[in-house]
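>> received
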Amino acid sequence: MSFPQRRHNRAFTLIEMISVIGIIALLVALVTPTLLDVIRSTRLSASGDSLVNRLSLAQQSAVSMGSEVEMRFYRYTNSSAERPGEELFYAYQVVHSPQAGVERALSEVYYLESGIILSRLEQLSPLLQTVNGQRPNADGNYLFKPPGNAQPDNVSYAAMRFFADGSMRMLTSSSATTGDLDSRARAYTVPTFNKSYLTIIESKDAQSAQPRNFFCVQIDAYTGKTRVYRP
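>> returned
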């Protein structure tokens, strides 16, 4: 047998190549949905772990400083998000918030990944139901400046306040930024255990009380300890 004949016999036919490509395409079609679910689940888990870490930072800072420290959750409209017309919780930050003193940031702002938000529904996040409008400090500056075209004075926030004994209270009145020291102190109350949680979800489920995937964090108001729930 000549050399050109041997090369011809070793080649793939057109039908064989089409069959192989078809099998590969079928496998990709079958695997892709599962792979996307894994990616979304991983992103939610990463966002939830970061939230738990910063809650721990807020509590530890309050204990070590012997002063009130807040975890603030910022709600605003984001023109570049999947739901640009809605005010949603996209970011949070640890803030030193003494009763009679100047507020200051204790951490950088943490922005949730694209497509991930903190649910604002009461069924999923009872801790985030009362919000305050963000106000400038004595210098006219804001602690939080949202990205994009949103203005700082259009940002509102929900808050959890940690105390020197490690306990936590949630914001339940808008008087936290107005009035005397007593009225500001009364703006924070101890939540019951069955109302002391918040939930990270995908933004496509912003209006759903039963999201397919979620990361729920429950906080013991007396000890500050967290517990995580996943589907």
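>> The CA atoms of residues 128 and 158 lie 5 Å apart.
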